[in-house]
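Hi support team,

I submitted a single chain yesterday and got back a structure, but I'm not sure I'm reading the token output correctly. Could someone confirm the output below corresponds to the sequence I sent? I've pasted both exactly as they appear in my results page.

Thanks,
R.
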Amino acid sequence: MKRILIVDDEFEMRQLLRLYLQQENYLLEEAEDGREAYDKMLKNDYDLMILDVMMPLMDGWQTLQQVRKISDIPIMMLTAKGSIQDKVQGLSTGADDYLVKPFEEAELMARVQALLRRTQHHDRKNDEVLKYKGIILNLTSRVAIYQGEVLDLTQTEFDLLQTFIVHRGKVLSREQLVELIWGIEFMGEERTVDSHIKNLREKLQEAKIEKSLVKTVWGIGYKVE
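Hi R., thanks for writing in. Yes, this is the structure output for that exact sequence:
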């Protein structure tokens, strides 16, 4: 069953959209502004976002830019502005469709179904985005994000963090980490991994992420709980 996030600061508009969309048995959730929508995106997976442009706190353009850092979810912009310039701005910023208010139910439903149909044949795999304790790893773009800010990680640090999250709760020895990150052909010193983990920890701490996220298990290796 498809999940749709409705983002609009007007209660009446959210109710209207819900009235139309619930007829197709979609799972519907709502957000009153961009910040709430972004927070929901951090915690949940959706198949489509319907996003109003004019909102307080964080408008639709800002929300679109933030969401595009962490997800390629189809996004339909919903606005009272119908100029060509506005439509071009929306589509060039990363929106997938643009619907002008007021609209007819039939047009809304046709556009929603078209967006869902367009993406159903290449759904995002579960492992394309990893989420853990507020950290988001976009495995396609290889970008790490925490609370909306991009973490300045090297490729090795990104690989280490991804490996820890995938294997969270497990103790990984230096040998295992070397094999997972660099492969069995690696000819360097296993202790090299220690310096990369030290740098990763410092960057996580700078971003005010839990200091002990990557824990040392003395004599054995490292783990994330």
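A quick pointer for reading it: The radius of gyration is 21 Å. Let us know if anything else looks off.

Best,
Support desk
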